[in-house]
Write a structure and sequence with these properties.
alpha+beta, 278 residues, 22% strand, four-stranded antiparallel beta sheet, 5 helices, Lipocalin
Length: 278
């Protein structure tokens, strides 16, 4: 259990070892330019349990989502805290299954370690003070958590425009809040467009651009449905000027190629144009 808490805590700390008064915002996964590069200078190059650490804040559980920053607020996703006995039982059962598979097939490559418990069933968005690590507010997003080999249902990272914050869960629940934690709208991609059906879960982070929230609708290997890029009005959650008409299919391999190129300015505008007209 301690191991999973450390994973979640360090995810926050590594963003806070720079100058606490630095004004650069980090509004989305991979930063303001979507390239993983920060313009902040004179940052530390080494860390330890105490060196160059400003504060630490324990999270309820662990998450693969990237914390984002706007002003004094850090937004991070996390499952609720899991029951300790439930975690121990899960890890013990997982260890037994791994040993049984190894016994049946000794030449099979052994996985490292024991799979993590996914955390509690309730999925959360937490706003944390950049100044001192205190929790400003916490909101429930969804119910239902699962381990997907190396991640859980809080892997998608939030995105903000400085006035609102949007987040999607691995179950496809999309929620918009203002920066004070007031819920603006919520909808579910699987309810709207069908089951994801992916082997290793949904972990795609939303994009925000000029008033639109852009997401992937991925139907995966276990369904025959096509995948899509969909753009919602970020303030209302509606599509196409208020209409919720069916999506046009967009082949998943072409969509993923465009998304991989989205850090390039021209490719990003191509992607957004395609999402807008669908």
């Amino acid at each position: 259990m301690a191991r999973t808490i450390v994973t979640a805590v360090m995810c926050v700390i590594m963003l806070l070892v720079v100058d606490i008064n630095a004004q650069e915002n980090w509004p989305q996964w991979r930063g303001p330019e979507q390239n993983g590069v920060s313009k902040t200078t004179n940052v530390p190059e080494t860390w330890s349990a105490s060196e160059n650490i400003i504060w630490k804040a324990p999270m309820p559980s662990w998450s693969g989502g990237t914390p984002i920053i706007w002003g004094n607020q850090i937004f991070v996703t996390s499952p609720a805290k899991a029951d300790g006995e439930e975690v121990e039982a899960f890890e013990e059962e997982t260890k037994k299954r791994q040993e049984e598979r190894q016994r049946r097939n000794p030449n099979r490559r052994r996985r490292r370690g024991v799979a993590h418990h996914p955390g509690g069933l309730t999925l959360l968005l937490i706003s944390i003070s950049k100044k001192n690590g205190s929790v400003l507010w916490q909101r429930e997003l969804d119910e239902g958590n699962k381990i997907w080999r190396k991640h859980n249902n809080t892997s998608p990272s939030p995105v903000t425009d400085g006035k609102h914050v949007w987040v999607v869960t691995g179950n496809g629940t999309v929620t918009a809040f203002d920066l004070n934690g007031k819920k603006i709208w919520q909808r579910n991609l699987q309810d709207d467009y069908g089951a994801f059906g992916m082997n290793w879960g949904y972990a795609s982070s939303p994009l925000y651009y000029e008033g639109k929230l852009i997401l992937q609708v991925l139907h995966g290997q276990k369904t025959d449905d096509p995948s899509y890029v969909v753009a919602f009005d970020a303030l209302t959650g509606m599509r196409n000027g208020g209409r919720n008409d069916p999506l046009m299919p967009w082949p998943s391999h072409r969509m993923l190629t465009l998304l991989r190129l989205c850090s390039d300015t021209t490719a990003k505008h191509r992607l957004l144009f395609l999402a807008e007209i669908m």
